[in-house]
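User: I'm preparing a small set of examples for a lab meeting where we compare how different chains pack in three dimensions. I only have the primary sequence for this one, and I'd like the structure in token form so I can line it up with the others. Please keep the answer compact; I'll paste it straight into my notes.
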Amino acid sequence: MAQLFLFASYLICMGCLLSAQVHAATFEIGRASVEMPAGVWKQVINSEGATLLDGGATGSIPTDDRIFGLMDGERVVAILLISSSKGGTIIRTNWTNNCASTKNSYASNIAFHVNGLGCARATGRLNTIAYLRLAVPKMFKALEAIEPALPPISHSVSAVVANDNGTMLYVNLVTIPAFAGSSEKPLVSVPDGINPRHAAWADRLAVAIRESVYSMSGKLVIPSVDFVTSPKLIQPVTSSK
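Assistant: Understood. Below is the structure token output for the 241-residue chain.
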């Protein structure tokens, strides 16, 4: 079974948050050419990683891993985790596509064939630090160090696509609850607690990633990241005395 988004190394610090500001820029990440959404995005991590196949028993696929933060002043209102395989190598791969909704999450299987991988996902409200501890354990300690800048509560909206030649691209948006999602096609049938517009945005992201994976150019245009109210009007959650 292929384990997704295993980050082998990382570089993260508050100083990194203050550098590499992005305004709808395009980044070459592995074989993918990624056009960022508009906004004040700052690169947090640039690392080399690997996606293990069958728990490492049958090898691994080298990846280029990045994390960007969408800034509102000194606060991070959204995080983009991106992991892309590198070009130039063909690795015949049979992916295990475990893509099914649960009572707490939406999932949509968009795989082209039985050996491929394609899944869009959206979750309900999450404790950001607890989620990151499980989702990205290799970078958790570093993210914990900047916890005051992170939203206490968030949603994960993600998609991953891979083909049987070993090309893989994974994108995960961890965002404040005020994320607007997609207004073009809000879904009707989603699990309780899932924002239908978040699920629809995940589907749009999955289609964009699939086009990147199966193209020669690898171009990925990430859908716009908008909010139902200005992040400046959203106050962080504080404990009562």
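A couple of notes for your slides: Confidence is low (pLDDT under 50) at residues 1-20, 233-241. The chain has one domain: 14-233.

User: Perfect, thanks.
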